[in-house]
Amino acid sequence: MSDWKYDAFLHTFSVLVDLFFREVHPRGAWRVPRTGPILFVAAPHANQFVDGLVLQRTLKNEAQRRVNLLIAEKSIHGFIGWGSRQVGSVPVGRAQDKAKPASGLIYLPDPINDPTLIRGVGTNFEKEAEVGGLIFLPSAKGQSGSSIDISKIIGPEEIRIKRPFKGKLPLEQLTGRDDIEEEGGFTNKELRGIKDGYKGTKFKIAPHIDQTEVYKAVFNRLKSGGCIGIFPEGGSHDRTELLPLKAGVAIMALGTLAENPDCGLQIIPVGMNYFHAHKFRSRAVVEFGAPFQIPNDLVEKYKNNQRRDAIGQTLDMVHQALSAVTVSAPDYDTLMCIQAARRLYNTGKKLPLPMVVELNRRLAVGFSKYKDDPRIIDLMDNVKDYNKQLHYLNIKDHQVAYAKMTLPSVIFALLYRVAKLLVLSVGVIPGLFLFAPVFAASKIISHKKAKEALAASSVKIQGRDVMATWKLLVAMAFAPVLYNLYSILLSIKVYQDHLWGYVPAWVPFWLVFIAGWVVFPAITFAALRFGEVGMDIFKSLRPLVLCISPTSSYNIQKLRERRVELSEKVVKVINDLGPDMYEDFEHSRLIADPTREDGALSSPKEAGIPEKTEPTPPDSPHLSRKNTTKSSQAIPRNESFSNIGAIGMFATRPPSRSRSRSSSSGGGFGSGGFPVSAFTTLDSKDGFNEASNKIRAAMHQRGQLRRRKSGQMAAAGLMSIFGGARRVLTGSAKASELFQKTTPDVDGEECTHDCDSCTVKYPRSFKVEDTHPLYGNIKPWSTHVLVATSKTDWVRNVEDEKGSVMEAFDKASKPSNGRLMLSASNMPTPSNRADYSEPTTILLLPAFTIIQNVTPPAVPSLVTKYISRAPTTSDPLSPAATLPTTIPSSRSAVGDMTAKPCPHRAVVLLCSHRTRDARCGQSAPLIKKELERHLRALGLDRDMDDERPGGVGIYFVNHVGGHKYSANMMVYRRPDAFGIDDVQRARLPPDQQVQIAKPTAAGGDDEADGEEAEKGKGGTMGVVGAAQCIWLARVRPEDCENIVKYTILQGKVVKPDKQLRGGFDRGTGMMSW
User: Which backbone phi and psi does 506 adopt, to 5 degrees?
Assistant: First the structure.
């Protein structure tokens, strides 16, 4: 490849990209290294040869890198072949391109006992087939035909294939039987052969393609520091999801590193994101993902004849990297709904093109994760209905806003735009007339080629992926001929009568011909630019006319009201589900929540979400084998890849095609292994500059975080600095001031060691975030209500539990004494059934008070008459509040509520909300089991059915925040709960044990529980409540022994730096907020 030829070709033909596309926006090009070998993996391949031109042009302009693309050998003829040679493309032979119909028919003589033996009727395998070649079955029923390698030729009418055919369709074709299951199994095992009277199926045979020389060329190019580009899906397509990747891309990377491990090869995913790729003057975003390298262990596997596993894991990494830079949806209808939801989520301001792609991607990921959620199903149905109404009125979503204009404004806008359109038409009509033959020819030919491509393909939906290429090719061929014809006609006219006398006689004939080649393209280009503006104006006239028309103005007005309702619903669903997907959902917003009227940003503190930094992305996206993608799953089990020359670089047969877009096989998106931030919007005031600055800062931070542990600690230190600054401003306590930390000289050497007799362990796959600072990043609260439900898991938001007390609390007025934290718990209901129609019990903290006979209608009275008067987390321990023992409720049908002291001396709360995060559902039962083991030895294990005074109650609660820090534990303690808060264990005599205070009945012992439940006159009760709440995170089973010994019994913290999230101590008046 000659550099000057490469540059000249791109410089010349890049004008086609500028003419065809209105905008091609590069994103993330700064990630591309300026030197060193790079393997660019681009997808989706939605625009045939235009994709390669766009990619090469973008890399040359933005990164000054020249890339050699792999191209199908069948395409290197004519102009495309000449162009591919100028830019050094590498031709690749594909078996499907050389497949030819074979003579005779084939069938499986014994599909059950010998499924790899194929027999023919009228065939000549010895002459037409070869070992290593492929046998293709025909496409049928909207599905692509299967293909299998030939492993042995037995005779002219018998061959043996490398592995059995799988699936219902190929087995039906080869046996004619109708007792085949979808997976390919036979229900009638007694019938060994084919159906009676069945003769067989037609087929094609392709020769063996040796790719050895191609791989060598790729290896040499990469080892020399060059760049190779590949579209690993193989042929172009117009599907909405990625096709499976073939092993060739993995072999290129692993083979290069096997020959030269120190070459520094990096793989960069490239997302080719188009908006109506086949349409003239459409838009595109070329997004470059983060570079990654192949781990050395995979290269060693590849070198040591473990190629299948190495190639499979590499394909998984490539597929996940591509998922992070592409927008994938299971079908066209879903993609349209996702784009409509993005427009409804946006506040009406025009977003920059890269942000449109980013929002589409994140919404697609969200749909993938929650597609079975009733809220998503209902929302998608509503959005589809809204799209149908837009289609019925033949208007666009952004044009619905015209309905709120007054009638005079609509009339004035209509007249103004019509006048503007008439002015623009002066510049459009001449060029439109001159170029009309090219437009007509390109449209006719491109549609014809699309039909031909669709008929020849097994993966295309409508064949639109070839239309842009053929439009450009036709224009390149026809436009010069047309301009030349116009110039000749102009010259002839000048020669005849000097253009009706307007051209002076002294003007030479040849100059007129040259002038024609300047004037006619200039008129066409002017028409293009004026027409672009004029077409936008023309499209805006219809909704204005509809607003004026009495018969349609009502419909568009109702549609606008429908849009407002639907927009609110979209925002609500995203804001509900967003925090579950992204812990930093509120923290990473660029502007305010669209539902907020003040236009202010939601702070992490306001949202109740701890600040966080991005997790460190690995040098390469490692995967466990259970997270493999459909690309690696498609690798044959018996393929060793010992002969890479026999392995195709492109997919031979991607998944079956359905002629209906809505029924296309889906999946693939949302499987990306890269962290994705929260949904983002931009406002018109700050514009794209603010977004760009934030994105650059985030990307720069991500680059720093790649320094593995050092980067993590740097980010953690920064968060600590911010947390310290906030505590100085708010006056909150430091972690070292709030609770005592255990020390060996006071508490003994045991406080420095985890439990060595722990009976339970977390699963190996249990991973939590372990680098972020925890302390102080919790939302303050004044009172805490635990509602008994007899359940250990709930819906995502417990306030949505229909008919429950939690729902009633959500709708009731807020307490006057500060924020109420509401939790559903597994405390038993009076009936021991999870039935919200019956009265239940609540535990009020820090009051340590049990309130019985609570129903949803009684909640407002409970809030105003009791909770608002109860002690809070910021109240001093004395004097004690006086609260009634009976809480009247005129709205309750089951009588008044009654209050009594909780018998426990301490309460431990564990998040078990599996619906929100599986880790909590896993960790909570294990931690409870280990805590009870240690408490049981002390006689302190209790539950709500246990009326013995004293002891520790352990209960499961719903989401309290920070699932990524599981297990979360909150410990509420009464003042000097067990009488040993001041005991110094290290200074006790060796034979002396710590003596825990004897539990006493609640109500009358001034030295024990008397302060907590001293009955007064008039049915009142003096309440002091909890002195402390210690909120821990990242609790593991081996921590439980010391948590019982020091935290629950003495109110100390063993690992404050790693586990303490915050809390309060009413004895000292300190809080973490």
Answer: -80, -10
**Cis bond before residue 44 (omega within 30° of 0):** yes
* Residue 194 · residue 107 · CB < 8 Å: yes
pTM: 0.54
Q: Is 496 helix (H, G, I), strand (E, B) or coil?
A: helix
CB 920 within 8 A of CB 913: yes
Token representation of residue 666: 């889906």
* Tens digits of residue pLDDT in 381-431: 898 888 888 888 888 888 888 888 888 898 999 999 999 999 999 888 998
Cβ 754 vs Cβ 811: under 8 Å: no
What backbone torsions phi and psi does residue 894 show, to the nearest 5 degrees? Answer: -115, 15
DSSP state of 645: G
What is the CA angle 251-253-259, rounded to 5? 90
Sign (positive or negative) of CA dihedral 668, 670, 673, 674: positive
H-state helical runs in 502-622: 509-539, 541-548, 550-581, 604-607
Single out the residue of 200, 191, 209, 233 nearest to residue 42, CA to CA: 233
Would you say 950 and 903 are in contact if contact means Cβ atoms under 8 Å apart? yes
Using CA atoms, how far apart are residues 1036 and 968, in angstroms rounded to an integer?
A: 10
Nearest by Cα to 582 from 679, 661, 725, 506: 679
From CA 267, how far away is CA 287, in angstroms rounded?
A: 14
- State how far the Cα of 17 lies from the Cα of 35, in Å rounded to an integer: 26
CA pair distance 617, 675, nearest whole angstrom: 8
Residues 679-732: tens digit of each pLDDT: 444 444 444 555 555 555 555 555 555 544 444 444 445 444 445 544 444 457
Rounded to whole angstroms, the Cα distance separating 781 from 537 reads: 55
CB atoms within 10 A of CB 27: 23
Residues 6+ apart with CB under 8 A from 305: 640, 642
In angstroms and rounded to an integer, the radius of gyration of the C-alpha atoms of the chain is 36
Q: What type of residue is 159?
A: I
Report H helices in 324-457.
332-345, 353-370, 374-393, 407-456
Q: Are strands 1020-1023 and 1014-1015 parallel, antiparallel or unpaired?
A: antiparallel
Alpha-carbon dihedral angle through residues 146, 147, 152, 156, given to the nearest 10 degrees: 70
Give the N- to C-terminal CA distance of the chain in Å, as an integer. 65
- Residue with token string 């460190």: 616
Q: CB–CB of 846/872 below 8 Å? A: yes
pLDDT for residue 1003: 38
Report the alpha-carbon distance of residue 784 to residue 782 in Å, rounded: 7
The Cα–Cα gap between 239 and 258 comes to 35
The segments of the chain whose pLDDT lies below 70 read 1, 141-144, 346-350, 456-458, 582-731, 879-881, 890-894, 944, 999-1022
Q: Provide the pairing of β-strand 1060-1065 with 282-288.
A: unpaired
CA distance 820 to 810: 10
> Which tokens in the block code for residue 761?
């362990």
Q: How many CA atoms lie within 13 A of 691 on its CB side?
A: 21
Q: Return contacts of 55-58, CB within 8 angstroms, 24+ apart.
A: 55/229, 55/270, 55/272, 55/286, 56/10, 56/87, 56/229, 57/10, 57/14, 57/17, 57/24, 58/24, 58/26, 58/29, 58/286
Q: Which strands, in side-by-side order, build the sheet including 100-101?
A: 100-101, 204-206, 134-136, 147-155, 158-161, 117-121, 105-107
d(C-alpha 241, C-alpha 218), whole Å: 28
Asked if residue 317 lies in contact with residue 620, where contact means CB atoms within 8 angstroms, the answer is yes
Bridge pairing between strands 941-942 and 906-911: unpaired
3-state SS assignment for residue 53: helix
